Amino acid sequence: MENKIIGLITDFGLKGLHYVAAMKSIIYSINPSIKIIDINHSINSYNQIEASFIIFYSIQNLPKNSIIICVVVPGVGTLRSILGVKIEINETEKIVIGPNNGIFSLLKIENENSRLMDFKIIEIREISNENLYFKLNGTISNTFHGRDIMAPVAAHIFTDSKFEDVGKNISVENLINLIPSNSFNLNEKIIETSILYIDEFGNCVLNMTYNELNNFIKSFKSNKYKIYFSKNKKRYFRELKLISTFEDLENNQIGILKGSSGFLELCLKRKNLSKFLNLKINAKIYLKIDI
What pLDDT digit, counting tens, does each position of 235-285 carry? Predict the structure, then answer.
């Protein structure tokens, strides 16, 4: 592999940066030539859906042959398996390593639909080869698999092992998916989707692409329409403005636009939409088309 880049995603936060340093130390002790990128260490604690979005966003931008390690593990030390998922994205191969607890949700969804790019999962391995683990004083920690399993396995893949050495092959059907499917109701002209991620500015990333929304609108064969949204299918719907940039909005006007991830985002000009409407990750969002 010509690139040796490992990206780290965790929910350790600022007070847990010593855990990040421990993972980096293990990687460098195996292969000091590896480059490490800190992708995000501020995932909300135990939030697998947020982690799933950050994995999907990051995997698009990393160079070919990169590896992502994601340590967001509500059940660390339990029987939840740790996987290596090899993907092909726009004709380049990359690997994601992490627990099978829902962090691979978006990868599984995109493998089935390829909504945003040429994407497929080509191989999944259950990591079980203890010869590749780090053992402090001869044992593996029950509470820090990021350091003792994920970090050294990633480093060994770049150094002296092949991907198939990490463990047995398993089927993509075994990947846990926590993200509900979108629902398209033509009779009621309503789409039911959900929030994948909320950024620092309160913009809410939806599990919905522009093409999905546009195709739904086209099915009504009308050039005149308005888009509304609500947190509750049977309650007040607010009008949305379909925009290209945040500055296209008037003050206090709520917009919907295609974000840098490729997914649609709800936003409020220079204000925090998530706080204004008390929106949370994985909350249901209803989009209604008025013809």
Answer: 778 999 999 999 999 988 999 999 999 999 999 988 999 999 999 999 999
Give residue 77's pLDDT band: very low, low, confident or very high (50, 70, 90): low
> Is it the case that residue 17 has pLDDT exceeding 50?
yes
As beta bridge partners, residue 195 has 206
Report the distance separating Cα 243 and Cα 263, nearest Å. Answer: 14
**Partners of 136 in beta bridges:** 139
Domain boundary among 174, 199, 218: 174
CB 248 within 8 A of CB 255: yes
Residue 172 and residue 159 in contact, taking contact as beta carbons nearer than 8 Å: no
Domain of 169 in residue numbering reads as 5-174
Least Cα distance to 240 among 197, 185, 191, 182 occurs for 191
> Do 27 and 157 reside in the same domain of the chain?
yes
Task: State how beta strands 67-71 and 5-10 pair.
Answer: parallel
Residue 245, Cα to own-chain centre: how many angstroms? 23
Closest CA to 39 of 81, 120, 97: 97
Label residue 90 by pLDDT band (50, 70, 90): confident
The CA-atom distances, in angstroms, between 237 and each of 31, 97, 191, 205, 240 are: 55, 41, 13, 18, 9
For residue 241, the tally of other CB atoms under 10 A from its CB is: 16
Residues 164 and 187 reside in one and the same domain:
no
DSSP string, 61-104: HSPTT-EEEEE--TTTTSSPPEEEEEEEETTEEEEEEEESSSTT
What is the number of helices (H) and of strands (E) in the chain?
7, 14
Q: Locate 256 and state its tokens.
A: 């919907």
